[in-house]
Amino acid sequence: MSIEEYGFEIHSSFLDNDLINAIITEIEALDSDYPRHGIRNAEKKLTAVKNLVESDLLLDKAKRYLPGIPEVVRVIIFDKTPDKNWLVTWHQDKTISISDKKDIEGWGPWTLKDGVHHVQPELNVLGKMVTFRIHLDDANESNGCLKVIPKSQNLGILSKNEQDRVVAESEEYICSVKSGDLLVMRPLLLHSSSKGSEPSHRRIIHVEYSSFQLPMGLGWT
């Protein structure tokens, strides 16, 4: 599978066990009442994650998929567990997180999540982005791994009805991966995940990079 044709690709054994264990240890050290199933702005809360997303290992990888210098847009850690075992319906990642809110023609709507401004930009912005999903645990159908519709990234920004039609007419791909594997995907690739039938830790570092030059006065978070 190549990202140019299919919108995603999987790289085995991308992250070594020592780094995986260091990140998991830092996650586990968070206060017991901290919502570990969804840690937004994770690079601002976990030193090991900050070091990883700003490392040459990831930045050099991101350069292979972007036309300019990659910058970190958004970092989230997701973890499905028996207590937090959710369904994600088919969708595209159509929003970005930026430093400030500003009226820009063709951008909107705006939302605020964890104190950070999010907005749906124009299509050309999303075309200069790439998403890395770094797996800290094995992920398969039993614990709710990602499913994708290959080649759907080429269809542009889709309405809900258009998404439903594409899914109904297409064959999904189940992204079963091992701890340490990297899934690279384009934001507009249709994707979803089911509830785990045998839920266990399914920790993923979701990292978005962009080489788009934001309008004056705005910056990536």
From TrEMBL:
UniProt keywords (A-Z) are: Dioxygenase, Oxidoreductase
Cofactor(s) listed in the protein's UniProt record: Fe(2+)
Q: Which Pfam families does the record cross-reference, listed alphabetically?
A: PhyH (PF05721)
Molecular function (GO) terms listed?
A: 2-oxoglutarate-dependent dioxygenase activity; iron ion binding
Against PANTHER family, the record matches this protein to:
ECTOINE DIOXYGENASE, PHYTANOYL-COA DIOXYGENASE DOMAIN CONTAINING 1
Q: What protein is this chain from?
A: Phytanoyl-CoA dioxygenase family protein
